[in-house]
């Protein structure tokens, strides 16, 4: 039981890293990785939202979609739920925790459109392993988000360093970021087979 | 049927929830800041003295700064800002930067070979750089790198040149120049300039630069009253009352020239 | 004092002290002396003579311009030819008094002599130090009288005389310690008297065994302690010296006085002794003229205002053309492009470097080899800082304590990429100072 | 005053002015790079001895193509052609040493292009690259041509009379232990009488070269010592828990690319941390990741991956291991960090 969850977490963080292996959530990965502190803020926000949305979508899936045979509405319902959820969270954060809002606030709207959040929800809903298991789905979403945050933090620290390199004009900006992401993804392939 | 009901139901529920949350927990945002932000040029040059355009918009909305500090904004935009803020418009005369030096490699004597960081401030701190004149352009292009609009070109013979059509008078180059060779002058009066910055006596200047103002006062005598002022051995234009363009004919060293 | 603390980093340098055994020779009179009015850190002195005035040796030429300033005295007797400006070692024009020597070298009435300084009041002695225009003669030229007036909330318990002379090539202090040992000790005791301090330490690097021995011998029974220090550059830097001698760390941005120490150069101590016991203001100093291109390198007692060219001529000129002329030592001196620059109170040496000794800076990128990290005596990260500054992130550099840089040059010395690291630091410091001044000006408005 | 006239005064018209210091220890990038090449020489000789002359061909093709590609890219970028500093040769040699002796030459050239082009030049050349170029090249080749990259020949003593040793394919010691079979003996592993990539087999030659570099202070001793030590420690603990050939610490330390990686690739100064503390963290990280991949991953070898991942972590390590400057109080430093 414990071993199962440890392997699940290792798999989601290192082996099937959302960004570097599944290529999900690339827009915040490229957009919010220019500075380490923003990357950490974004990572935190993603972890927070993904746990929440993973839990809620798994609930919706189990008790609404599957029960009434509405699986074909999955994508659209999940989008709706996640978007609404993030909106509410943002407003509540701003109201009740100014510090957390300034730390996460600006990233929350970005997350609404983050395919990683939707991706994790859909993976949980479709893969046999997670079907109907709300706790396991939530753990998976958490681990995936940690993987995302890890990739983001690694990447942003490298990018901060790249600011001090004389990168050729044509490679500046997203180009060099993608090359770097590619090399990082190559490096992460080394973890293949871990936990199996 | 159930699918439609479910989707609609979820939508309505979420909509209601968001509406209620915003109604009871929402924090109002200042719409003024956003409309001010739209009027900003977005170059984030910092010419207003604040950290970029959105900071300036914020500062205006909260009364920390006045409209019209931005050197780049058009007059209409400034007027609009004033309208939004409900204050009277106060237009500033648009400015332009001038490099007051003619000491390129052909004219200025080379004293030493500077070896080090390619930056004017650095060069000045090391024995005063490679040119002999301690008042002139060091020619390493710090101003050109500071210009957010690409208006400064470094001539191959180590002199900065300002392209008037691109210059917005933001003053970044003025801040970047360690020798204060660059001056900000009113755009409308920028017809002729004295391209020399050295207040030294003529013989000293002549040994280090062939194009220096030698303080002969010919221009000051020819021009109208108060149009050219002598600062010691250096002629300077009174930009409140600029001389006619024809005045450049009298200058023996051609350091008094039409704006280029 | 055998348990010696070692400061972090530092580099071992080729000392190149070829003039250690050259006795001090006095320079003959010059026809013309150009005496800059700013020979110290702080405000320039205000001229008190007019064009055409007759002046005598030791007469006041300029009085201190503000609190952090020092007066300037005439090096010889003659006529003031003009008040003009001259090129200083830093490449900037300095206001100066040009004196045409009359060849008589008549001394002015000396300042009243303290026959028995042990009984003079500290304030009187301090006033004399200020009056005599004494500055730190190690290079920075900070007015000594200001140093002797610590802020009221600190107490100084240790006076350290800096006879380390860790700069390669220079031997001026070394010769002074050998030839004027007693003067230095007297000076040290006067300083201690001014501050009411019991502990006086003279620190000498071990590469000068003769000076160490001489000092120890002469210091016996005077209450002055002499310590020999490990040979490591920059042992003579103020903060490193205090740390090595007393184990105290001067906090970032603070003065040595905050840890109860006062460091002054041995030359300054000798000048204080001369000012108090002989009534002689500071108008001459020992300068080392050295370098492989110099025909006969030596230590010369030069009057302030002597042009570099005269000092060099006294050393027999050059054997080959130098590629660099440096005012000061090779690690912290300033390179100059003219020999018309006058020797000032802070000119510890004139160094000529031949073409094959000069390594040019190159625009290579930082290799991140970390050698500068290991060499930096301030435990900073010079490599990263220099890249940061190269890409104009000045505020970041300031957050990373660039202002603590002492510009000792260890980082550039070891950099395999040949990067001008110290120059980057200087720039960041200049920018930070400018920003601070602008902020102050804005807040005053 | 006849003597006065003979005094020669210097010509001041061609003086150089620059910032202090005016002394330099006369070290330079080419000096470092060519010393590294010299330190790799024993391993190169060993590889020719065990694998035959084709090893030399592969290494030369990698070096030449790396240099040529760097020159070409400098030209395209209109920058000073930087191959004189020797770093491209080092990258080429290291890349060649991580390839099997049977690698087709086109693969060497492609690998060089990835190493130099994507690993270094797009980052602005030497000093800008966050990842070790040779590791980038090797990992890319391993992903692109897995079979060619894992074709090993059987080695048996001196092969100086051969072009390439028998083409019969064998397994590397690490592949053997991954299948839980006993590897070759200690002396074979130590001397390099085993299958594997060109430059990684002869532990003795690599240690000689590495110690040479440490003695010259070109690399920090912390990185190889802690890297190898961590691998030894973790596999040793595993071996004590369950003593089977898979966990034999001696095999893990002496075989695979560990020596080459620890002495020559992880110590690449551009991509490793700046200070000693950071170097220790970096090396331990490399060791942990290597062991994890070797023992539990699907690849038998993990050195290049470990190095690349720790390269990505280097900026973070630098940030958190940077000490406080002399005299800066702990609180002030934390506030600003």
In sequence order, what are the helices and strands of chain A, one letter per element? Answer: HHHHHHHHH
The dominant shape of chain B is elongated
Helix content range of the residues of chain A, please? over 70%
Distance from first to last alpha carbon of chain A: 15 Å
Shape of chain A: globular
Query: Major sheet of chain B: order of its strands?
Result: 1-5
Give the terminus-to-terminus CA distance of chain B: 76 Å
CATH fold-level name of the largest domain in chain B = Alpha-Beta Plaits
Could you estimate the helical fraction of the residues of chain B in percent?
A: 25-40%
**Biggest β-sheet of chain B, characterized?**
2 strands, antiparallel
Indicate the proportion of strand residues of chain B. Answer: 5-15%
Number of helices of chain A: 9
Based on helices, strands and strand pairing, what is the structural class of chain B?
Answer: alpha+beta
Oligomer: heterotetramer
Into how many domains do the coordinates of chain B divide? Answer: 2
Strand share of the residues of chain A? under 5%
Based on CA atoms alone, the radius of gyration of chain B comes out at 26 Å
Query: Mean of the pLDDT scores of chain A?
Result: 85
CATH class type of the largest domain in chain B: Alpha Beta
The H/E string of chain B reads HHHHEEHHEEHEEHHEEE
């Amino acid at each position: 039981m414990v071993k199962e969850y440890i392997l699940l977490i290792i798999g989601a963080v290192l082996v099937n890293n959302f960004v570097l292996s599944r290529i999900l959530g690339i827009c915040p990965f490229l957009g919010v990785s220019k500075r380490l502190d923003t990357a950490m803020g974004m990572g935190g926000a993603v972890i927070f939202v993904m746990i929440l949305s993973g839990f809620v979508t798994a609930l919706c899936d189990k008790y609404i979609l599957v029960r009434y045979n509405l699986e074909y509405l999955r994508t659209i319902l999940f989008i709706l739920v996640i978007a609404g959820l993030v909106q509410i969270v943002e407003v509540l954060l701003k109201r009740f925790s100014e510090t957390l809002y300034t730390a996460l606030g600006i990233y929350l709207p970005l997350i609404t459109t983050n395919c990683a959040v939707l991706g994790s929800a859909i993976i949980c809903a479709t893969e046999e392993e997670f079907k109907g298991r709300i706790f396991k789905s939530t753990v998976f979403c958490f681990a995936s988000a940690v993987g995302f945050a890890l990739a983001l933090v690694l990447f942003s620290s490298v990018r901060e360093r790249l600011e001090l390199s004389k990168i050729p004009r044509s490679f500046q900006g997203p180009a060099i970021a993608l090359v770097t992401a590619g090399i990082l993804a190559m490096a992460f392939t080394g973890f293949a087979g871990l936990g199996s | 049927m159930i699918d439609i009901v479910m989707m609609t139901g979820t939508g309505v529920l979420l909509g209601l929830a968001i509406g209620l949350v915003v109604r009871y927990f929402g924090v109002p945002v200042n719409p003024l800041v956003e409309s001010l932000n739209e009027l900003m040029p977005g170059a984030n040059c910092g010419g207003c003295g604040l950290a970029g355009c959105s900071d300036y918009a914020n500062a205006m909305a909260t009364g920390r700064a006045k409209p019209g500090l931005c050197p780049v904004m058009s007059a209409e935009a400034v007027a609009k800002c004033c309208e939004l803020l409900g204050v009277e418009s106060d237009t500033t005369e648009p400015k332009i930067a001038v490099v007051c030096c003619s000491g390129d490699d052909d004219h200025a004597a080379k004293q030493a070979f500077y070896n080090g960081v390619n930056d004017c401030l650095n060069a000045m701190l090391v024995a005063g750089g490679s040119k002999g004149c301690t008042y002139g352009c060091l020619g390493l292009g710090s101003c050109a790198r500071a210009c957010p609009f690409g208006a400064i070109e470094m001539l191959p013979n180590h002199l900065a040149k300002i392209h008037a059509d691109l210059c917005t008078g933001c003053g970044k180059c003025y801040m970047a120049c360690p020798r204060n060779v660059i001056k900000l002058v009113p755009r409308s009066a920028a017809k002729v300039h004295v391209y020399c910055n050295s207040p030294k006596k003529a013989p000293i200047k002549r040994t280090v630069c062939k194009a220096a103002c030698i303080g002969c006062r010919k221009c000051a005598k020819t021009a109208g009253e108060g149009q050219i002022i002598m600062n010691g051995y250096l002629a300077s234009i009174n930009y409140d009352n600029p001389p006619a363009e024809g005045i450049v004919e009298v200058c023996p060293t051609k350091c008094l020239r039409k704006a280029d | 004092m055998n348990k010696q603390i070692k400061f972090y980093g530092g580099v071992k340098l080729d000392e190149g002290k070829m003039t250690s055994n050259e006795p001090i020779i006095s320079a003959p009179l010059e026809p013309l002396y150009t005496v800059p009015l700013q020979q110290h850190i702080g405000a320039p002195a205000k001229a008190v003579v007019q064009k055409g005035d007759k002046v005598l040796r030791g007469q006041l030429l300029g009085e201190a311009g503000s609190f952090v300033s020092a007066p300037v005295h005439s090096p010889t007797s003659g006529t003031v030819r003009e008040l003009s400006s001259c090129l200083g070692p830093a490449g900037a024009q300095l206001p100066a008094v040009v004196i045409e020597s009359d060849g008589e070298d008549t001394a002015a009435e000396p300042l009243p002599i303290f026959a028995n300084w042990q009984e003079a009041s500290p304030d009187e002695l301090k006033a004399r130090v200020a009056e005599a225009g004494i500055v730190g003669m190690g290079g920075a030229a900070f007015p000594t009288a200001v140093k002797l007036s610590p802020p009221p909330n600190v107490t100084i318990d240790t006076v350290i005389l800096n006879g380390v002379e860790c700069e390669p090539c220079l031997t001026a202090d070394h010769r002074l310690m050998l030839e004027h040992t007693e003067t230095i000790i007297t000076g040290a005791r006067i300083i201690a008297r001014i501050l009411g301090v019991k502990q006086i330490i003279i620190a000498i690097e071990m590469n000068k065994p003769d000076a160490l021995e001489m000092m120890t011998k002469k210091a016996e029974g005077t209450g002055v302690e002499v310590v020999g220090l490990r040979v490591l550059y920059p042992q003579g830097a103020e903060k490193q010296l205090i740390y090595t001698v007393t184990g105290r760390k001067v906090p970032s941005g603070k003065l040595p006085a905050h840890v109860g120490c006062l460091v002054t150069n041995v030359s300054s101590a000798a000048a204080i002794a001369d000012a108090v016991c002989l009534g002689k203001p500071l108008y001459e100093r020992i300068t080392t003229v050295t370098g492989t291109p110099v025909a006969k390198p030596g230590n010369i007692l030069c009057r302030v205002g002597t042009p570099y060219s005269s000092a060099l001529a006294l050393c027999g000129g050059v054997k080959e053309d130098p590629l660099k002329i440096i005012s000061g030592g090779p690690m912290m001196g300033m390179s100059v492009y003219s020999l018309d620059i006058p020797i000032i109170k802070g000119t510890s040496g004139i160094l000529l470097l031949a073409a094959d000794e000069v390594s040019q800076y190159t625009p290579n990128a930082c290799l991140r080899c970390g050698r500068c990290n290991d060499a930096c005596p301030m435990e900073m990260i010079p490599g990263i800082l220099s890249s940061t500054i190269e890409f104009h992130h000045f505020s970041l550099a300031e957050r990373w304590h660039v202002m603590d840089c002492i510009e000792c040059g260890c980082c550039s010395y070891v950099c395999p990429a040949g990067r001008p690291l110290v120059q980057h630091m200087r720039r960041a410091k200049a920018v930070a100072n400018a920003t601070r001044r602008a902020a102050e000006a804005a807040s005053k408005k | 005053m006849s003597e006065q006239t003979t005094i020669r005064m210097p010509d001041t018209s061609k003086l150089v002015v620059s910032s202090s210091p005016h002394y330099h220890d006369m070290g330079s990038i080419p000096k470092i790079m060519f010393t590294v090449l010299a330190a790799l020489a024993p391993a190169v000789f060993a590889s020719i001895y065990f694998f035959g002359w084709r090893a030399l061909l592969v290494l030369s093709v990698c070096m030449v193509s790396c240099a040529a590609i760097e020159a070409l890219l400098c030209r395209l970028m209109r920058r000073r052609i930087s191959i004189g500093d020797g770093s491209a040769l080092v990258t080429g040699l290291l890349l060649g040493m991580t390839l099997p002796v049977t690698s087709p030459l086109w693969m060497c050239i492609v690998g060089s292009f990835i190493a130099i082009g994507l690993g270094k030049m797009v980052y602005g050349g030497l000093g800008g690259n966050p990842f070790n170029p040779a590791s980038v090249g090797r990992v890319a080749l391993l992903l692109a041509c897995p079979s060619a990259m894992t074709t090993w020949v059987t080695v048996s003593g001196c092969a100086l009379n051969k072009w390439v040793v028998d083409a019969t394919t064998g397994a590397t010691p690490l592949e053997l232990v991954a299948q839980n079979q006993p590897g070759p003996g200690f002396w074979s592993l130590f001397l390099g009488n085993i299958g594997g990539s060109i430059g990684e087999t002869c532990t003795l030659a690599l240690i000689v070269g590495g110690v040479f570099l440490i003695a010259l202070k070109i690399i920090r001793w912390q990185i190889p010592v802690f890297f190898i030590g961590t691998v030894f420690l973790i596999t040793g603990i595993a071996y004590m828990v369950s003593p089977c050939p898979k966990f034999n610490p001696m095999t893990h330390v002496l075989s695979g690319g560990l020596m080459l990686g620890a002495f020559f690739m992880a110590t690449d100064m551009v991509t490793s941390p700046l200070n000693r503390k950071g170097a220790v963290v970096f090396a331990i990280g490399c060791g942990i990741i290597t062991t994890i991949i070797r023992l539990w991953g699907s690849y038998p070898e993990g050195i290049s991956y470990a190095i690349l991942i720790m390269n990505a972590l280097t900026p973070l390590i630098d940030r958190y291991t940077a000490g406080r400057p002399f005299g800066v109080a702990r609180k002030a430093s934390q506030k600003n960090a």
